[in-house]
Amino acid sequence: MAGQSDPDLSIFTAPEVEFLAEDELVEIVPNMRMEALHMICGDFGPFMPQIAVKVPLWLAVALKKRGKCAIRPPEWMSVERLTQVCEAERESPREFQPLPFHYIEISRLLFDHAHDDIPNLYMVRSLIEDIRNVRFHKVETGLETISGRTHAVKLKNLSAMEVNIVRPFVVRALQAFYKHDSPEMIQQPEASASKRSQVVDRVPRRDLRPR
Amino acid sequence: MATDLGSADATWSEQDPSIGATTDVELLRRAWRNEKAGPEILQFQDALVQRAREQIQLLEGTVEEFMENGTDDLVISLYQMDLDRTLFLLRSYLRIRLLKIQKYVIHYSKTQLWDRLSEEEQKFAKKCTDILEKHFERSVLSRLPYGYQSILRQSISSEEDDMVPEPQLDTFVFCKSKGAVGSFQLDDSGDEIVDLVADDLYILRYKSIKGLVEAGRIDLV
Known about the structure:
Chain A is mostly helical. Chain A is 47% helix and 11% strand. In chain A, strands 4-1-5 form a 3-stranded antiparallel β-sheet. Chain A has a two-stranded antiparallel ribbon with strand order 2-3. Chain A starts with 13 loop residues before the first helix and ends in a 9-residue tail after the last helix. By secondary structure, chain B is mainly α. In chain B, 47% of the residues lie in helices and 11% in strands. In chain B, the strands form 2 sheets. In chain B, strands 5-2-6 form a 3-stranded antiparallel β-sheet. Chain B has a two-stranded antiparallel ribbon with strand order 3-4. The radius of gyration of chain B is 23 Å and the shape is flat. Chain B: Pfam families: Sld5, SLD5_C.
């Protein structure tokens, strides 16, 4: 089956992350009548013309493709909200603004399949692009503070796709630092240079990239 | 050192996962995610898989009925999509487990982790071990001098099984807390403490949160 990823670094493929995002609920306005759907993933509907109803994103996209509904873009996808987020994102260099966990995938799916339902499409698209860039830059600068003593990295509000993109690099970097910082690795130079006795192990270890 | 790369209050992020009834699909999704992201095999979700199988069969029957009685094509295709999505999730969950079992099959058969495997998985693991042993025996081990012919030990003088690959628990994982977990110790020496509040996202060493993952208090992402 497509999309089975390497269990070693436990990476999800991008389509797998998108698959997860497709279960997020969005509001649609149907233009047809259809009875309620009793699905494994939940009950949705009934569907009446002009009456808004919440459905998973995959269902919304399926209906939209067949011209059966309009998708209401989520509240956070307005120019106003995104401008606020973008500004806040720039002003706080060490924090990520709260956005839906799947904001990248949701916006991407809506751009691809429901572009006529998004007011100010170009503006919204470029704002999300900007927000992504600012956030990635923040992750990159944050990574410079990682050292052998790093046992935990806090990334509150980082989104699913962002996690997935930085995972291989971050995990390998942390593993490498952890490995080289372990006592066995530190012991080795001691054996040859006896002057530096056990005390070495006590002092706080130097960051590889002092700031 | 807990490097803080960001924290701001969640005002309009996701809906609270504890609100509302959780569907089996949601539970399966969580199990799939944790299994994919964790280095070591987790407890097989026997009841959940059973329920998912039943629901899939039920829906397959319904879809067939719909086809016969001439229900709207749109409705049929939507149900079919729901069916396909659930099938994908279930298959992917079972497959990722088989992959993990295959990789560390000897380790799993020797430890109490064996109990985490389903009956079918245990059968699979046994066959796997047999094949692996035969293969090593024929291709390499039988040609080595006496004392070096064990599949488990480097030589006869090894005190324990030192040739069995094990999952690396020292690796780092991304995890998200569902509710407030409170503070807990990160390493054995006890000088690293992290306080997990609801909806936090951390990169932590798998070993230190293993218990929390197994207890379902924290999710891997």
